[in-house]
Amino acid sequence: MIMMMLPQLLSKIFNTFAHPTYDLPYLAILVVTDAILTSIIVLRVPYTEIDWVAYMQEVTSYQGGERDYVNIRGDTGPLVYPSGFLYLYSWFKSLATSGRDDAMDPTGLDGSTSAEAIRRIQWLFTVLYAFNSIIVLGLYQKVLQRQRQEERQQTRSMVVWCWRIAMILTCLSKRVHSIFVLRLFNDAPAMMLLHISMFLFACCDSWAWGCVVFSLAVSVKMNVLLFAPGLLLLLLQKNRSLLGTLQHLSICALVQLVLGWPFLSTYPISYIKKAFEFDRVFFFKWTVNWKFLPESIFISKQWALLLLMCHLGTLGFLATKWWKASISQRGRSKTAEWMSWTKSNRENLVLSPEYIIYTMFVSNFIGIAFSRTLHYQFYCWYFYSMPMLHWMASSTDSVAKISWTLITSIIAVFGVEYAFNTYPATTMSSMVLQLSHAFLLAKVFWSGVPTIAGDAHLNMNKKGQ
What's the chain's Rg over C-alpha atoms? Predict the structure, then answer.
């Protein structure tokens, strides 16, 4: 009797806890559990020195009055990050050495590389990691809310639990925890700022402030520019004019100008060449994604050009797809408004949260897929987007399709995790990574584009009809 009732009981629990009432407690449990896990990692796993000493050497050189980027360097070589990195890590250094008297530090770094100072920064990065997780989970929750509105009753609970599993996946990466609290890479705060900007765009409809924070993220590490093609498309659609788009782009440019002014006003060429070093040469021994290639091909200019053409070609293909989706959803005349200099009316288009998030994540992933190299710390550039992209690029027509999506997507996500946790990278790990990338890329190619207009805009249109 009990065994006969068990499936019904489990089904009832499954459906009951899929209700929105339980969303906030579920998120709170995830955040707290992940924070505890991260704290245990800090306490139990030894810190690994890779770049922190070099960061402090670069910061100390800047604090000593050096403004020529060619002369700002550390043990790993010359500084290759924009000025926001120097300001942020100068602040980190002040926190690490606060209350300490290390005037006699033989390294000349004011005690910022001592075990005590590093432990302080590890706890700071633990807070940054937790805050970043809250922002990312907020993005996932926003999309989940929209999915609930669109799903049929028969599959709604299944879809909700799939998204909750996706949220769990964003908290499980061994490598990403390491990037934040065991390595202290600048990739971590850069991506935190990027996710905050996306939250402002998607959840707050705050595009001016979003552009400010986006530009701040670029100033910490320029990999954030991989999101720029998607942001440009969104700005064109949001403003419905070239002039409005240029106004938002000018905000991004102004932030870079203000932050970089101490260097641009003294050694401009040096700053531009080093802070935005697009021709940077990478070493084959550190690559995670192309280890199965001969080194001669990896370092060749022809290979770099081929990847660049694939990157641009794929962006062009997807831009055409997005354009056709806009025509299908909004009509040709409204779609063509993007390319006019001024708006035909005063209304800005309210873009749906899922469309904003998906477009920016896809833009970044295309850059990742055709990247000339991926180092271990680059994983946090797109780790948080993978479950989102897999779920949004999948069919939810039936329980069978949802189950298949769940299984294959989890396998693909863990394939990438396996590759980034294999050190040193091998032919096998790189091939697994590329297959996982190719699977997701194919899903993006074949899936539809999310609803473009948000509910607020649709409601305004209905009132005007």
Answer: 23
